[in-house]
Amino acid sequence: MLFQFTNTRRLILRRGCAVAASALLAIGLVACGGGGGGSNPPNTQINATGLSVTPSLGLVRNADTSATCLANSAVLGTGTTGTSGRVSLSLNAGCSGPVMVSVVANAGTTYFDEGVNAFVAMAPVGTSMRALLPSLAGASTLSLGVTPLTEIATRQAIANAGGNAANVGVNQVLAANTNVVTQVLGSTVTLDILAEPTLISSQPTSGNLGTGMADRYAFYLAALARAAGHTGTTPALDAMNALAADLADGTLNGGSSGGFTYTQSGLSNQINGGIASAANVYASAALQTNLGLGGGSGTPTVAALSISSFTPGSGSVGANVTVTGTGFDSNISHFQVKFNGVNATISNATSTTLRVQVPNGATTGLITVVRVVPDNASITSATNFTVTGGGGNSSTWTQNASPSGFGLGALAANGSSTFVALGGGLPSNGGCSAYYSTNGGVNWTQIFITPTRPSPCLSLSSIAWTGSQFVAVGSSGSNTATYSLITTSPDGITWTERNYPSSEVAGFGTNILRAVAASGSKIIAADFDLVLTSTDNGATWTRESGSIGFLTVNTNRIAGMATDGITTVVAGCCRQNQVGNLIVTEAGFATRTGNGAWQTVTTSGFYPYAVTYNGSHFVAVGNAGPSITDIAKAAYSTDGINWTVVNMGTNPAALYVYTVASAGSTLYAVANGQTGNFPSFTNYSYIMKSTDNGATWTVDYTGNPPPNTIFTQSAIAATPNRIVSVGSGISYRRNLP
Fold first, then answer.
1. DSSP character for 459?
2. Residues whose CB is less than 8 angstroms from the CB of residue 162 and which lie 6 or more positions away in sequence, other chains included
3. Does the model's pTM come out above 0.85?
4. What is the C-alpha to C-alpha distance for residues 368 and 115, in angstroms, rounded to an integer?
5. How many other C-beta atoms can be found within 10 angstroms of the C-beta atom of residue 298?
6. Closest to 125 (Cα-Cα) out of 639, 487, 656
7. Quick one: 537 exposed, middle or buried, by C-beta within 10 A (0-12, 13-18, 19+)?
8. How much is the mean pLDDT over the chain?
9. Does the structure show a pLDDT above 70 at 474?
10. pLDDT of the residue at 139
11. Which of helix, strand or coil describes residue 231?
12. What does the alpha-carbon distance between residue 507 and residue 477 come to, in Å, rounded to a whole number?
């Protein structure tokens, strides 16, 4: 059960059938079906000739809408929501069995997102939200709501039908539509997900959603959008994508999409926080009473926030401190802790304690706790915490020794304080080197990831965080035969090797996974001619037929990969010969939506070396050519197909730009340069920053490695409180505001 509210009103529904509410009863589906199979019961009523569709994230403007008969893929009707957010479809034919209604974003589609209280783009183009009607039987005109909950149910029904929508039967539709409310909102909430919700298109001056079904539905959608922990610009859309990918198999595992991240155990607290937050803005006094929130006063009832003590009373940067008090809860994303104004990383939380680490940049002063959800309350300690060492200015970057003297080519971070870096030489014990830090990059511990099928580990090329675990890919084997390696870890310390159905060809360099990207429980890993996907958070993998477009023809390097859960973008650049020289043949992107075909997008004059997704845009960094003398460039896109290429600035202009990462709405890119020639030369590192989705860039930090040393930066990643860059010989870290 996700919610603990005792006064939640329940609608009286038929429990003996897999029928969720009035909309289903209205279309004549009153008989109990079988046990979830795909068979279609006989249709005894006339098919409807009209369908009124109301999509809601809140209100969705100017979205393309269609109804399709699943059994034969026939399009029954099309239209657009316009500015009203509603559309009436005229159905040109009947259908025996389930009907899918799709709401698809075009270049002009926007929606009102209750998480930011503004209209935002529904992007990228092609983003869809769907619902499944079990049948068209009933009245001549039917009504239907299309929401994040119906999208989750749609993906679940298709997954239960073996991934083929044409095989989805009525019973599978009924089961998915009924189960999704409990899976997401808990057993105390009852909604008809196919009913039309009240459309929200502005922030009211006072709560106006009442206790009726349409208003209650709108309220819970707003609560999803306002669930705690979101850092992006499209909370409602990100929550939908993360939950839909995670729950496709019917099991809650944890997930991430854009700025929305949750764990299996933490989702309930995040949604409860969203409910409390949404109640303050949208719920009437009657609805708040109905939900058990504050007795209709308009303010949720929460315990008073206080700090009674903290232990120890002093310590250096990186030390663990336990803050004891009241008004806490177990979701670390609900709180901020500051040491004399500097944000700290929270590693654990209970109803009475917050365990934090003294942040880099902290100075002696008071400790402040901010309860972001539900009320933004704050409390400050009565006495100072004394910083005994390692303090400094939190707005500056700190240069440290790298975890490894070898090059580190991949870095990922979880939602708290753990970073995992990959790279290094081939150790004698057969394992690839990995380094983990649990205190935000201050200290690192080396471990070895040793494969069993076969050994030893040859390389680990890429790593991603799914929202609940790290996924690393690379290769194992020998100098005569290589095999793809996939391994997962919840904490960066304990790793589990994963297998996949394969017909691997023996030969050196044949099977080396070079990139992995994740959005919630959906993960994609790729080689030149090898694409693997997982929809269960990395536990099992499926090998796809075919390959990634032009990357198998002229380009012998996957430079990076990113996904928003629907669209996947692979950056490709340059072929490298045996003596290490770059042979420029073709550069650009391969992009696809869902599991569709890959589309090749070449970019003349731009050679991408990394790509990321920041919650609203795909952003790539690279150069005008393959040489360090070529101008540093970036490109950004909302759909992965149409790219705008920009110079990253004239100071510095000649840089080799390696990688890019997002920290909330800010992008950071790592670049390296060199003056002079070996053995007398100067190496330098730059960290570039963009706050407008990659359109313009500024220098945020200039590194100062020792002269005549080859120190470079090649990987960067961020937690909500810290951004870290690693490479060869040196690393950098900085607290985030």
1. E
2. none
3. no
4. 25
5. 15
6. 639
7. buried
8. 79
9. yes
10. 74
11. coil
12. 10
Of 249, 250, 270, the C-alpha closest to 259 is 270
And the tokens for 391? 């303090």
- Cross-strand bridge partners of residue 75: 68
Distance CA 238, CA 274 (A): 14
**What is the strand order of the sheet 515-519 is part of?**
515-519, 522-526, 531-534, 542-543
Q: How far apart are CA 125 and CA 104, in angstroms?
A: 8
Here the tokens at position 262 are 């949750």
Assign residue 538 a region (left: φ > 0; alpha: ψ between -120 and 50; beta: otherwise).
Answer: left
The Cα-based distances of 665 to 230, 723, 736 in angstroms read 11, 13, 12
| Predicted pLDDT of residue 9 | 22
CB 410 within 8 A of CB 423: yes
pLDDT at 300 over 60: no
Q: Which two tokens stand for residue 546?
A: 């075919």
Cis previous bond, 454, omega within 30: yes
- Look up residue 239 and give its DSSP letter: H
| Mean pLDDT on 392-398 | 60
Pairing of strands 50-55, 141-146: parallel
Packing angle of the helix pair 213-225, 235-246 (nearest 10 deg): 90
Tokens of 338: 């500051």
Q: How many CB atoms lie under 10 A from the CB of residue 577?
A: 9
Q: How many CB atoms lie within 10 A of CB 476?
A: 28
Lookup result for tokens 């939900």: 291
Query: What would the pLDDT profile of 634-644 be if each residue is shown by its tens digit?
Result: 999 999 999 99
d(CA 151, CA 510): 39
Instruction: Report the range out of 44-48, 72-76, 170-174, 683-687 with the highest average pLDDT.
Output: 72-76
Q: Name the β-bridge partners of 400.
A: 731
Question: Which segments of 161-234 does DSSP mark as H helices, in order?
Answer: 170-185, 213-225
* CA distances in angstroms from 119 to 34, 113, 273, listed in the order given: 43, 6, 22
List pLDDT tens digits, range 671-693.
877 666 655 556 777 888 999 99
The whole-angstrom separation of Cα 471 and Cα 525 is 10
Cβ contact 178:36 at 8 Å: no
> What is the secondary structure of 562-612 as a DSSP string?
EE-SSEEEEEEEEEE-TTS-EEEEEEEEEEEETTS--EEEE-TT-EEEEEE
Q: What sections of 283-392 are H helices per DSSP?
A: 285-291
The one-letter amino acid code at 611 reads V
